[in-house]
Design brief:
Elements lengths: L19 H28 L7 H6 L17 H14 L1 H21 L2 H12 L5 E4 L9 H4 L3 E5 L2 E11 L7 E8 L5 E7 L5 E5 L12 E11 L10 H36 L1 E2 L2 E2 L4 H29 L5 H25 L12 H12 L4 H13 L6
Parallel strand pairs: 1-4, 2-4
Antiparallel strand pairs: 2-3, 3-7, 4-5, 6-7, 8-9
Helix pairs in contact: 1-3, 3-4, 3-7, 3-8, 4-5, 4-7, 7-8, 7-9, 7-10, 8-9, 9-10, 9-11
Length: about 400
Amino acid sequence: MAVPSTLHADFYGFQADLSPLEQEKALQIRDFLEHEVRPIANDYWARAEFPHQIVKPLAELGLFGMQIPETARFENSSVFRGWVAMEIGRVDASTATFVGVQSGLSMNAIARGGSPEQRRTWLPPMSRGELIGAFALTEPLSGSDSARGLRTTAERRGDTWVLHGAKRWIGNATMADVVVVWARDVADRQVKGFLVRRETPGFHASKIDDKQSLRIVQNADITLENVEVHESDRLPLILGFDDVATVLRLTRAGVAWQSVGVAIGAYETALRYVGEREQFGKPLASYQLVQDRLAQCLGNITACLAMCVQVSRMEDEDRQSHAHAALAKGYATSRAREVVAWCRELLGGNGITLSGGVVRYFADAEALYSLEGTRDMSNLIVGRDITGVSAFV
């Protein structure tokens, strides 16, 4: 199967703005995804299992730690990194989420908050896919209000910190070698980051079995019962929740890109279907209502892609704010939700089968709509920026 050098859904030709090397790398990534991930995605999604065999090839493509100087395999821009998230999301949102947790959350947290020794210890093997990371912030009773509502505690006793609490919805956690755990210091009430190894006594991760979105991602409930962590495994440059929010700002933009990929994947599937499926003696694609719906899908995709390109350019220019990332994330996930619903509609009854090719995007878009800050929370971040008044409780 030949892999196209450009995406049909890139209607305004944004790919041309990538450097020649980035375009070459994007094509290599697309080729791998089409031949190694797409053929197995439905099966692993249905079984809610993770295809461990793709980790090493993803690492060899240089997808882990592209934004970090000591692990980047080649020169790349923020726009390219977003483009990669889109390319992966176009084939499988769960794989894109795995890469986002490994590289955008876990490795970014260590790169931005860690000591030189911690960076040397963890980042190179994580970039090679030899070690898997997770990022444990969300809790059973704390999601959108993590800044104020974090309940997991950390108490210092000499050179040891004792962690106690619980986490929920933690991607990669059942297979992670190291988990970046966020806990509130009982002494100064500031949020701090800790590197917790999987084998640490008192640490337990159990898979969440009943979710119906991003099923390939191994999300877990975590319990921390008097988990002892040495001071050398505390991230020393994390001084409070503002530092955590910086990591989240960067990954929110990544989720926006990923959502564009999901919308493109559903759109491309629907476009192929209406070209092949005949009703009343002619292809569905020949009907005005179908063409109108396809144009609406493409309009959403193009608007979101333009927003993502610009917000990533702003990151490269060091002028991306929390509000910029939040607007892109909230808007792109909302529009992707519309696109996947319209595409499912275009496939009729076949749209609710995995073999039809759209329902996996339909279900996965629901998780993207909520994770990394819901649409409502994203809009409140934007609202605070444009009005100067916080509407947070």
